[in-house]
């Protein structure tokens, strides 16, 4: 199957997708409940759901007169796209600069965290 391009999400779209990824499915009013304050207006949630549907990131099933939404693009597929755009935009595509930035600016980096990064890098290097 051909891999389609995953479109970038706005902040509100990301919040809605986070709810769907964590809950599996939800109705618009439930999605709004799970978003932290300040909560978007109900009309905003409806608009975002329509846009996400048009972007082919979510779908829905009908329950009576209501729609129950669910993600059709999983978080595991979206995160690399999102992180890749951050690396390209802010670090000229240089992953080493991105790692250095995150390690330098993270507040609670532990030795375990650094060892996990090193271990992941070594595993990746073995695959190359």
What can you tell me about this protein's structure?
With 128 residues, the protein is mostly helical. It folds into 2 domains: 61 residues, Winged helix-like DNA-binding domain superfamily/Winged helix DNA-binding domain (Arc Repressor Mutant, subunit A), CATH 1.10.10; 53 residues. Helix content is 61%, strand content 12%. It contains 6 helices and 3 strands. A 3-stranded antiparallel beta sheet has the order 1-3-2. The longest helix has 17 residues. It is elongated, with a radius of gyration of 18 Å. The model has no long low-confidence stretch (mean pLDDT 89).
Topology:
Elements: H1 11-23, E1 25-27, H2 28-34, H3 42-54, E2 58-63, E3 66-71, H4 75-91, H5 95-105, H6 111-127
Antiparallel strand pairs: 1-3, 2-3
Helix pairs in contact: 2-3
The largest sheet has its strands arranged as: 1-3-2
Work out the helix count: 6
CATH second-level architecture of the largest domain:
Orthogonal Bundle
Q: Strand portion, in percent? A: 5-15%
- Could you state the order of secondary-structure elements as H and E? HEHHEEHHH
What is the residue-averaged pLDDT?
A: 89
N- and C-termini, Cα separation: 25 Å
